[in-house]
Write a structure and sequence with these properties.
Elements (H helix, E strand, L loop, with lengths): L1 H8 L3 E4 L8 E2 L4 H22 L1 H10 L5 H30 L2 H15 L3 H7 L2 E3 L8 E2 L23 H26 L5 H20 L4 E6 L5 E7 L13 E5 L12 H6 L2 E5 L13 H17 L8 E6 L3 H10 L5 E5 L5 H7 L6 H11 L4 H6 L5 E6 L20 H13 L9 H8 L3 H10 L4 H14 L14 H15 E4 L25
Length: about 525
Amino acid sequence: MSAFFKCLLGPKLFRIYKTPTNAGCVYQANAIERNADNLAKWLKFVYSISYYTSPVLMIMLYRRGYFSKDGLRTLGQVFGALLIFYMGAISLRGLGRVTNSQYKQFLHHLELAKTNWSPTTRKLLAGYDFEFFGWPSEFGWKNVEGDGSKPRSYVEAAKRTDRITSSLVKLPSQLLGYLAMHSFGRRLIYPGAVSLLQAVMAPALDQGRTKLVEELGGRRAKLKCRRGNDIDTMFVDRRNQEGFPDGDTLVITCEGNAGFYEVGCMVTPLDSGYSVLGWNHPGFWGSTGEPTPEQETSAADIVMQYALHRLNFKPESIVIFAWSIGGFPASWLAMNYPDVKALILDATFDDLVPLATARMADVLGPIVVSAVRDFMNLDIAEQTKRYPGPVKLVRRRKDEMITTEDPPHPDTLKSNRGNYLLISLLQFRYPDVVTEASLPVLWQWLECDRAQQVLLWSQYNVDSDICQSQWSAHVETNSNSYPSTIGSGFTDHQRAIFTLFLADKYMADFDSTHCVPLPAIFLHPSCWREPFESS
């Protein structure tokens, strides 16, 4: 009976990984477990559909009289029958598992790992791909020394100074904003946390995870963050491996709003030959929780601590690489760990508010602004400004996701919020260079294709060597800290020249849409040199 209950409550087994003595295979469930599991999945699917369509469903049920005494009795009978079917399916699945030798062996190895965690039992458990809730947590705040008590920096939304009457007038929109964000809003911003999407993507995620483990030697681990969530991570170690001269550099990746490390931006640093640590947002696949700003930063924090204290990388050997909305936890990490080697942001925006308001009716503007500022304040630009190290921005010229004007509108490229991220960063770091006088030239450069940018450089006689020597002379007599005082004695023409030089150093263009994988060339070590180092 004990074995039956363990099988009943145990995690679902997906695959037995390939080893030097084992070819690897998909777990073969017997007919009882397979059919019972299909029934349980179908019932969960029905529940998910009912949950996400509940507002419409409730109206339909009300109009058909199901909220009367007899109607509620009928609904109770239907729900009771479905619950009995579900419990029966779960019980049959447990019966099928207890008669399956593969599952029993897996369960034995899982119990060994839980009772006696060691390199040997971990290796046994790593030979299986299974539901991540069953994986033991192997790193958390209890393993952190020193850094755990260090205060973290956060970018807070601007505090309101409205009078009482004004606050009362805005109260309805704030309440609607709260309801919207905590119902459908968060799921629109982070669709990867929606269970239906995860169910659709499950085969691709399983395949991607298999490739990372079997072909690249990936090591999966569960981390327990400060807020109590479990974070699903994957680490590929290239240190001291032949053919990977840059393996001593660790790239921590931060995925987009529907990205998972199994099929996301890990591919770019892997193709570049680095050691890579990927992780899933809270609520994405094996990670628990919800993708709120607080939980996002807490998850990113424990991932960094894991890299420093368990994987034993030094901050100066770590590059943070993010795609799209992943720029939020990435810039937060850079802000709080200023000694990291570099921050690379691909297809990333400056702030969520302009993107959110652009996709909603104008009449909903106050509600959208209130909801985003109060509950999803992703101010990437402000966090990036607080990181003093090398920053590289990659802009997708055909990006259709982080623009406020959709293609084929002529202002699509101009409305790319990556432009505003660049301007915000340059104005903070070089306030005497990127001024109102030089800003029109910068906008002209941002709206050009590469050939026109080269022509613009030629028109202004931009010479990289001269600009770099000007910076070197400035550093010798001042410092290389930010904000820099360089440019205080420049003419407007000199400011325009230096602005074009800076724009080219800080931003690279990729002629692509939002979701195409970034080529490895964009993660070449020259990308994260300080802007004034020689290539």
